């Protein structure tokens, strides 16, 4: 019999070999000759930015999701302009762009027209997880940047915070991601913050005269009362663009507390809460809440799959000189 560690290693190897065989130009040493210090340079940019602003890791991780789920991992979410992905309302609260841009400027100075913006987005998100205490993931590189970015492709490919589990699974299945991937990657909510406006309408009652929000079990009985009261206090006491940590306990640390929170009725979004309430996902939520190592092991597998959705390689796409615009 194999040990769990051996089985995990075999599983990771099989997933990686599948990705490499399916996308032959992606490899672990893609920049070995052309830009050997590329990954180190991205990591240091992410580290420096995170030390100055503790919200950066969560922003970079969210940026990856919004890039890869729409048109694949091709940096198309970075492009500025009317009717681009970045201009869509679903992406108006995205952050971390300046970190990617900073890394790109440095890489263009050292290795001109070599490292894609798409790879930078994946590497930065990987580093953001590790720098906040999460597992290190060895990822293949060699993605190329996409040549199109349209706002009308955004919302049909992203999970809305009000989605049922079935709706969320439909979105994931279209990207060849499984139910396990959905639960595992939802663990990204262990870091980062969300705007109060994204949870108020779904989970609270708003007084039309004062604008104050309050928790009523009749509006959302799934929320833990003390947690709901804490959320309403934070959102009422701050400006309209106020944010709250996705995990109020350890929101700056990548850990498994997010899953423990779900079991206590302390999920920020409806899409979080349903994971603990539906028999299709509840067992895995319990496993991750008990065993952080199991969550970390599965995270590595699911992150690899997320970062390899519909990548452009070979003669597809381009290597952008500036991440915010397609080359002339």
Automatic annotation (TrEMBL):
**Cofactor binding description:** Binds 1 heme b (iron(II)-protoporphyrin IX) group per subunit.
InterPro entries listed in its UniProt record: Haem_peroxidase, Haem_peroxidase_sf, Peroxidase_pln, Peroxidases_heam-ligand_BS, Secretory_peroxidase
Cellular compartments annotated:
Secreted
**Gene Ontology CC entries for this record:** extracellular region; plant-type cell wall
Q: Which CDD domains match?
A: secretory_peroxidase
Binding-site residues for Ca(2+) 1, renumbered to this chain: 67, 70, 72, 74, 76, 85
Q: Top-level EC class, please?
A: oxidoreductase
Q: Which reaction does it catalyse?
A: 2 a phenolic donor + H2O2 = 2 a phenolic radical donor + 2 H2O
Q: What is its EC number?
A: 1.11.1.7
- Locate the residues binding heme b: 189
- Which residues are tagged with the site Transition state stabilizer? 62
Q: Active site at which residues?
A: 66
Intrachain S-S bonds: 35-111, 68-73, 117-323, 196-235
Its biological purpose = Removal of H(2)O(2), oxidation of toxic reductants, biosynthesis and degradation of lignin, suberization, auxin catabolism, response to environmental stresses such as wounding, pathogen attack and oxidative stress. These functions might be dependent on each isozyme/isoform in each plant tissue.
Q: Indicate the family of this protein.
A: Belongs to the peroxidase family. Ascorbate peroxidase subfamily. Belongs to the peroxidase family. Classical plant (class III) peroxidase subfamily.
Protein name (record): Peroxidase
> Which species is this record about?
Zostera marina (Eelgrass)
């Amino acid at each position: 019999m194999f040990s769990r560690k051996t089985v995990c290693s075999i599983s990771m190897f099989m997933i990686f070999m599948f990705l490499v065989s399916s996308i032959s130009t992606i490899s672990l040493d893609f920049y070995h000759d052309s830009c050997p210090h590329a990954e180190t340079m991205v990591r240091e940019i992410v580290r420096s930015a995170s030390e100055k602003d503790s919200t950066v890791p969560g922003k970079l991780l969210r940026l990856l999701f919004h890039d890869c789920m729409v048109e694949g991992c091709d940096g198309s979410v970075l492009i500025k302009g009317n009717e681009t992905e970045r201009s869509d309302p679903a992406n108006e609260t995205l952050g971390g762009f300046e970190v990617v841009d900073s890394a790109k400027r440095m890489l263009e100075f050292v290795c001109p027209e070599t490292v894609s913006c798409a790879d930078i987005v994946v590497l930065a998100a990987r580093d953001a997880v590790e720098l906040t205490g999460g597992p290190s993931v060895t990822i293949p590189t060699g993605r190329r940047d996409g040549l199109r970015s349209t706002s009308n492709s955004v919302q049909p490919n992203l999970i809305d915070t009000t989605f049922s589990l079935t709706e969320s699974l439909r979105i994931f299945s279209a990207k060849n991601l499984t139910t396990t991937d959905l639960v595992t990657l939802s663990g990204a909510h262990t870091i980062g913050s969300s705007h109060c406006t994204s949870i108020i309408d779904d989970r609270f009652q708003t007084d039309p005269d004062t604008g104050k929000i309050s928790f009523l079990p009749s509006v959302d009985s799934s929320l833990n009362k003390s947690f709901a009261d804490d959320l309403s206090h934070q959102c009422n006491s701050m400006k309209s663009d106020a944010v709250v940590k996705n995990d109020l306990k350890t929101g700056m640390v990548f850990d498994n507390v997010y899953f423990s929170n779900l079991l206590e009725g302390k999920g920020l979004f409806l899409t979080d809460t349903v994971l603990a309430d539906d028999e299709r996902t509840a067992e895995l939520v319990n496993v991750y809440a008990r065993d952080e190592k199991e969550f970390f092991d599965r995270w590595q597998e699911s992150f690899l799959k997320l970062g390899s959705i519909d990548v452009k390689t070979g003669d597809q796409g381009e290597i952008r000189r500036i991440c915010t615009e397609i080359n002339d």
